[in-house]
Amino acid sequence: FAEAASRAGYDPLRLAAEFHAPPLAVFRRLATLRRGGLDAPAFALLQLNAAGRVEMRRPQSFIALPRHGAACPFWPVFDAISRPETPVSRLCALPDGTALFVTAYASATAPPMLHELPRYRGAMLILPRDTAAAIGLYQDAMHRPGARGVGPGCRICPREDCAERTDLSILG
């Protein structure tokens, strides 16, 4: 998988097609790829249910990910959950100015059933912008104007003027 990931430029959707695997499984695999001598990007991963509750997280040194509670509603994963099976890639900026490249995807948690609405799960892979640019990941998204302001989650977000804040910040 590591060799194929390198050849594919760490593009999770190309890898999903090559291995006939669900994209979210490939997201999780990419997030655990850098270990024991493998030279691979250090992807951070956040997987959520449609309500925004964290189901899985793989933090990296460049980003603090929420351990519990809801994630920031401006993260691209929520765009993906609102449009399942449609990849979303964009630049994001943390409150401290750190620029990130985020790829998000969402899919149903189970096969469709008659008379039942599907439930969705979404995940996002996160890299520092410079790392993503160096490996050539989604060059078109890298050149779009403006980065979306995001935060780690309301409780620990220093943004004071956020219109979507759902919890008071413990930062003061």
Note the beta-strand portion.
15-25%
- Classify the helix fraction into a percent range: 10-25%
Major sheet: order of its strands? 2-1-5-4-3-6
Query: Total strand count, please?
Result: 6
Question: What does it look like?
Answer:
The chain is globular, with a radius of gyration of 16 Å. The longest helix is centred in the N-terminal third of the chain and has 9 residues, at 23-31. It has helices at 2-7, 12-19, 23-31, 76-82, 129-135, 139-142; strands at 44-49, 54-58, 88-93, 99-108, 120-128, 148-149. The chain has a single domain, classed as 2-Layer Sandwich (Beta-Lactamase). It is of the alpha+beta class and 172 residues long. The protein is built from six helices and six strands. α2 packs across α3. Strands 2-1-5-4-3-6 form a six-stranded mixed beta sheet, sandwiched between helices. The N and C termini lie far apart (45 Å). It is 24% helix and 22% strand.
